[in-house]
């Protein structure tokens, strides 16, 4: 009992006040009403939806405040969590169990003691290591503050041309947002199709959708530098051409933000993210990690991976928070499920693609089908392409990708559920899925693809 009392008084410090950090802090508060909890967040916001930034930049969401689930004031007043924005953690001193913090408003620095520490520092956009990459007008999008900066640039500088460097989903969502704002948008991507999380044949459908929207694609081209005028970006230079740009958005993906952990020698995995147990504990006693900065166990590839998604970050936060509060929760793993809307298409993926299977040495077969989102005669029926991948020999389903019009993408959740349950392709065919003409053909496109895949296997 006294140990328990002691742990209730032991302060928790959380570094990073967004999805993972605040989910954990809120969970700890729900479990332990007296526990001192301090959250340091270097940006001005807590619990914001980075996922909503493209829609704020594109104008579908008018006010940035609508992207904030809970403000620092709400955390302080309602949850009694000491959420301090504009505070950056500079060092972790684990021997003395304290962090060094800088107040970014007045430059004041101080040490804050902790009993338990949660590192929830997220990920940062990758920047190309080429001349001019620190020019103004080049934006990596990650925090709400970075989204505000893009929209401010649109209003104040009135750019006409934009180049997105990198064809990851964030870059594509931003490209669409900038088209909506009336800019001429080009996108430079080193690979032969955009959306590297899809197999190339499925990525080609997304490339086509972007072109239809008016985005000029420069595929199989690499950005080699940025031209600048008085410190501002004016063009993107690739290995083949120079593209004029009043605004550049980086869509090269993210890397885990782990530099603080290096001082404490917290183990990292092959992905570069922090290695954590299934209870989200790092290799250093008393330090936990959650969200984009931490690894997850991939249930299909059976490897540790970093998947930078809000879905994972929130669940990580819940598990870390439960355990820090003395409970016993386990994060079982992920299958890598993601969905986005790119122009008129919904795009979804889960598990492993054909190309990933090859790289991992998994003997697989794939089947791709084209079908309709609704019964053919029902108004609004439109194209959906489903690709499923299965393992030869075992017949195990290993992944799925979907590109289609409205109503297509959430079908990926059926595939994700089947993957999580370790189902075979035959078992997927036999699932008792729903049907009525406004929702699908009588055989759902996922099951049509499964039948085709069963033959291929
Ligand atoms: C444009 C965009 C669209 C997205 N769309 C989707 C989507 O549709 N679906 C989906 O699942 N995911 C999406 N994501 C990903 C999702 O937003 C992230 O996976 C999620 O926010 C990760 O949460 P996190 O708490 O781990 O990290 P973050 O949200 O990055 O939060 C980390 C916080 O830590 C702070 N921080 C870092 N270092 C310090 C320090 N030293 N001191 C103090 N504070 C620090 C940062 O300022 C940041 O606020 C999107 C991301 C972006 C950028």
Sheet bearing the most strands, described? 5 strands, parallel
Strand order of the largest sheet: 3-2-1-7-18
Mean pLDDT: 96
- Approximate strand percentage: 25-35%
Find the count of extended strands (DSSP E, 2+ residues): 25
Shape verdict: globular
- Please, how many helices? 13
Alpha-carbon distance between the two ends = 58 Å
Q: Oligomeric state of the chains?
A: single chain
List its salient traits.
457 residues; five-stranded parallel sheet; 13 helices; 28% helix
Give a structural overview.
The protein is an alpha/beta fold and 457 residues long. It has helices at 2-9, 19-31, 53-58, 72-79, 144-157, 169-180, 200-213, 259-262, 310-324, 354-360, 412-420, 425-429, 445-456; strands at residues 12-15, 37-41, 82-85, 87-93, 98-103, 109-113, 116-119, 123-125, 138-140, 161-165, 184-189, 216-219, 223-229, 232-238, 242-244, 247-250, 254-256, 287-289, 296-298, 303-305, 338-342, 345-351, 364-372, 383-391, 397-404. Helix 2 packs parallel to helix 9. 49% of the residues are buried. The mean pLDDT is 96. Residues 15-21, 40-43, 50-51, 53-54, 88-89, 120-123, 141-143, 170, 257, 260, 291-292, 308-311, 313, 340 line the site of flavin-adenine dinucleotide (FAD).
